[in-house]
Amino acid sequence: MTTVPTPVLIEVSGNELQFIRKHSPTAFPRTISEALIKEGYLIDRVTVHKELRTIKDGYDPRIISKARELLKLLSGVEYQDQ
Prior knowledge:
Radius of gyration: 13 Å
Order of helices and strands: HHHH
Structural class: mainly alpha
Strand content: under 5%
Helix content: 40-55%
Largest sheet: none
Shape: globular
Mean pLDDT: 89
Number of helices: 4
């Protein structure tokens, strides 16, 4: 039996989430979900959407990392915490 390790949660500021939502394309949650599925993680777009919209203490690092990567690739922008 193989077990999938639970990812360690990471912190993300509300400002960064707002930045991601403002600069991302409309179908961004689906794009993230499809990219993660190709990497072997079964995550649906609803989960991705909730992760990018909900303010909470910890976030799934796979989703946030992929969102940051794809935002830079697709939109050419990157969040700079000042």
